[in-house]
C-alpha cells in the first residue's frame, strides 16, 4: 500500500537479520511482556475464545511468546488434549514454561522454532492459534500454507492482527518522516490490516472458509502513567521495532533529529486523549 503521492511505502524486511532483530526485540521484552500492556492478555483470551476448543483437542500455538494463548488452551482441552507452543525467542518461552509449571499443566510444551522451518506432522492438530504474532512472520503467505498442512481436515486457525494505524503516535512519527525526508512508511500492521486482503490470503492458502471480524479496542496500550512516559515508550518502540526499523532507512543523526519533535507531538496527543486513554 502507498501513502499520498507516487512513492512506494517502505516496509523493511532484511532477510539477513530480520529474524535476529525480532528475537532481540522480544528478548528485551520477555520479563515485562505480560505486565506492561493490558492488550496482550485481552487479545490472547479473545483468540482462544474464538477457537471454541474442545476437551481432547490438539492445539498448535504459533508465536507463543509467554504462553498467554497456550496456557489458556491447555486448560480448555484438558488432560486428554495437548498444546504445543512455538516461538523464536527462548527467553519468552522460559516465562511460559515457568507459568505452566506453576499452574501444574502437563499437557502443554514449548519449543523454540521458526514457522518457516517447523517439522510438524501433516494433519497433526485440530486447531492453530496466533495472537499478535502473524504480522512478525517474514513470509505470511508461506506460513499460512504450512498451517493448512498441519491442521486436520476440518481444523481451524484463529489469529488476530492489528489494523492501521496500530498506535496513533505511530502515525505522528510517519508524518514527521514524510515531512522531513519524503519517505512514506507503513504501519507495522499493514500487511494484514485490510479484512478483504486477509480473507483472500486465507482462501488462497488453502483454507475452505475465512471469517474476518474487525473490533476496535480503546485503551492506553503502553500502560503509561503520564503523557511524557507514553511518548518515551512510543519512541523506543517505533525506533527499535523489528518490522519497520527506522534506522534501516535513516541515519542515526536523522533519527535523533526527529526525537524531540516526536516526543512533543506524542505527549500532546496523549494529553488530548487522556480521558478515554486512547493513545
What is the topology, as strand order, of the major beta sheet? 3-2-1-4-5
CATH superfamily of the largest domain: Vaccinia Virus protein VP39
CATH architecture of the largest domain: 3-Layer(aba) Sandwich
The assigned structural class equals alpha/beta
Bin the strand percentage: 5-15%
Largest sheet: 5 strands, parallel
**Oligomeric organization of the protein chains:** single chain
Question: How many helical stretches?
Answer: 9
Q: Give the overall form.
A: globular
Give the CATH class of the largest domain.
Alpha Beta
Unreliable spans:
1-14, 274-279
Question: What's the CATH topology name of the largest domain?
Answer: Rossmann fold
Gap between N and C termini, in Å? 24 Å
Radius of gyration: 19 Å
Q: How would you portray this structure in words?
A:
Helices cover 42% and strands 11% of the residues. It has a five-stranded parallel β-sheet. Helix 2 packs parallel to helix 3 (68-77) and helix 8 (227-240) runs antiparallel to helix 9. It is globular, with a radius of gyration of 19 Å. The chain has 279 residues and is an alpha/beta fold. The longest helix has 21 residues, at 252-272. The protein has nine helices and five strands. It folds into two domains: 1-24 and 162-189 and 218-279, no CATH class; 31-160, Rossmann fold (3-Layer(aba) Sandwich), CATH 3.40.50.150. It comes from Elliptochloris bilobata. GO terms for molecular function: methyltransferase activity. Keywords: Methyltransferase, S-adenosyl-L-methionine, Transferase. Residues 54-168 form the Methyltransferase domain. InterPro entries: Methyltranfer_dom, SAM-dependent_MTases_sf, UbiE/COQ5_MeTrFase.
Amino acid at each position: 500500500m502507498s501513502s499520498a503521492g507516487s512513492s512506494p511505502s517502505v516496509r523493511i524486511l532484511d532477510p539477513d537479520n530480520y529474524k535476529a532483530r525480532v528475537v532481540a526485540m522480544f528478548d528485551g521484552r520477555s520479563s515485562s511482556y505480560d505486565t506492561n500492556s493490558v492488550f496482550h492478555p485481552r487479545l490472547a483470551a479473545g483468540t482462544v475464545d474464538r477457537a471454541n476448543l474442545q476437551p481432547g483437542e490438539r492445539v498448535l500455538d504459533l508465536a507463543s511468546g509467554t504462553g498467554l494463548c497456550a496456557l489458556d488452551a491447555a486448560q480448555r482441552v484438558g488432560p486428554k488434549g495437548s498444546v504445543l507452543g512455538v516461538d523464536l525467542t527462548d527467553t519468552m518461552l522460559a516465562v511460559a514454561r515457568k507459568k505452566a509449571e506453576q499452574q501444574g499443566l502437563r499437557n502443554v510444551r514449548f519449543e523454540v522454532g521458526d514457522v518457516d522451518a517447523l517439522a510438524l506432522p501433516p494433519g497433526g492438530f485440530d486447531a492453530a492459534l496466533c495472537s499478535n504474532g502473524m504480522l512478525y512472520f517474514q513470509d505470511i503467505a508461506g506460513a499460512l500454507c504450512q498451517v493448512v498442512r498441519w491442521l486436520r481436515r476440518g481444523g481451524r486457525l484463529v489469529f488476530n492482527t492489528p489494523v492501521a494505524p496500530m498506535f496513533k503516535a505511530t502515525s505522528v512519527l510517519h508524518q514527521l518522516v514524510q515531512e522531513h525526508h519524503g519517505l512514506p512508511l507503513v504501519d507495522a500492521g499493514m500487511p494484514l490490516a485490510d479484512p478483504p486482503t486477509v480473507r483472500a490470503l486465507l482462501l488462497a492458502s488453502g483454507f475452505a472458509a475465512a471469517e474476518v471480524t474487525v473490533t476496535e479496542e480503546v485503551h492506553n496500550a503502553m500502560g503509561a502513567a503520564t503523557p511524557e512516559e507514553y511518548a518515551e515508550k512510543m519512541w523506543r518502540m517505533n525506533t527499535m521495532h523489528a518490522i519497520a526499523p527506522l534506522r534501516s532507512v535513516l541515519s542515526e543523526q536523522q533519527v535523533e533529529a526527529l526525537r524531540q519533535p516526536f516526543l512533543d507531538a506524542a505527549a500532546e496527543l496523549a494529553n488530548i486523549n487522556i480521558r478515554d486513554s486512547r493513545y
